Structure formats: structure tokens, C-alpha cells
Amino acid sequence: MPSGPRSDALIAEIQQEFPRFRLVAKGGRRLQRAIDVALKVVTLGAQRDYLTRYHTVLGDTVYLPTKWADETDEERFVILRHERVHLRQRRRYGLLIFAAIYLLPILPLGLAWGRARIEWEAYAETLRAVAEVKGIGAARDPALHAYLVEQFASGAYGWMWPFPSVIRRWISEALAQIEGGAA
Ligand SMILES: [Zn+2]
């Protein structure tokens, strides 16, 4: 697959941290196609872009949607920064707990909260990476914020935290940290 200097450098960095890290296309994998069907069923079709638009971490592997082929170097860099957070979370929690929180689409509120916090940690990194490669103005783009809110409030991740005002507060806090230079 075509690549670029920024995303290639980040891939090398991730491979240093996770020696078994690899990128694999979702399309050819039977398990990935089975997950796609399951997600369509349990979300009543609200998550129908699993194979085409969403990246998924399992073990040390990041599974890539078909859209990956069209991403620019900068877009890939931003995506991989998000997915690196999931790799670190998987290491922190262990595969079973992480996979349970991440993959099971409809769970009691408490675990949906868990998934929302796992995803938020990664989407905060998305904002940080966007600010790095495209400037703070791009991280402040209302269209990006609307996209982020949708990830939490829609069926994309099983309506994991359908409270836009809460997500918008998290976004504001993350931007304040980024602008303040905090880690
Ligand atoms: Zn994520």
C-alpha cells in the first residue's frame, strides 16, 4: 500500500514499542467479516461502515478498512496515533478485558461508559495529532467536533455515550490541555 514519510516514521516508532505490531486489511479476514455482520445485526444497521471506514485493534494488529487506501500521509498519521492509544490500553488492561469492552457492542451502561472512556482517550490523541500536523485551527474545526460527537452518540460504537454536551465538554478540556502544552 502507498505510504508517506510521516506515517512511515510513526509505524517504525510503533514497531519499536510493539515488536509484533502489524497492519492488516480487514477485507480478506473471515473474522473481520463476521464482526461486520454481527455489528450490523446488533446495531440494526447503524454500524454498517465497519469494513469500509473503521480501524480496529486486536492484539498487536491494527485492521484497516478499505478507506485506508485513500488516506493521505497526514490522515494516516492521525489515525495511527489514535490506534497506538488502543495498543497501549490493550497492554494496560490485558487482551480479554480490552476486547470485551471494545468489541461487545451493546452492554449495560457501566460498560458502555468504559468503552466511551477508552475511545475518548484515543480521540483526545486524535485531536492532539490533528493539532500537530494541521495546526490548532484544524483541531478547533467544528466539523471535526461534530464528527467526534457522532462517534459517541450514534450507533457507530453502539451509542456508547449519547450525550453530546458531555462529549463537547471533553473536547473543550482536551483543546485547553493541548493549547496549554500539557501532556
Ligand atoms: Zn478508537
Question: Keyphrases for this structure?
Answer:
binds zinc ion, 3-stranded mixed beta sheet, 3 strands, mainly alpha, 183 residues, 9 helices
What hetero molecules are in the model? Answer: zinc ion
Portion of residues in beta strands equals 5-15%
**Biggest sheet, in brief?**
3 strands, mixed
What level of helicity do the residues show? 55-70%
State the total count of DSSP E strands. 3
What shape does the CA trace take?
globular
Instruction: Give the ordered list of helices and strands.
Output: HEHHEEHHHHHH
Distance between the termini: 32 Å
Strand order across the biggest sheet?
1-3-2
What's the overall average pLDDT, rounded? Answer: 88
Write the layout of secondary structure elements.
Blueprint: H1 5-17, E1 22-25, H2 30-42, H3 50-53, E2 56-58, E3 61-64, H4 73-93, H5 95-103, H6 109-134, H7 136-139, H8 142-153, H9 164-179
Parallel strand pairs: 1-3
Antiparallel strand pairs: 2-3
Helix pairs in contact: 1-4, 4-5, 4-6, 6-9, 8-9
The structure holds zinc ion.
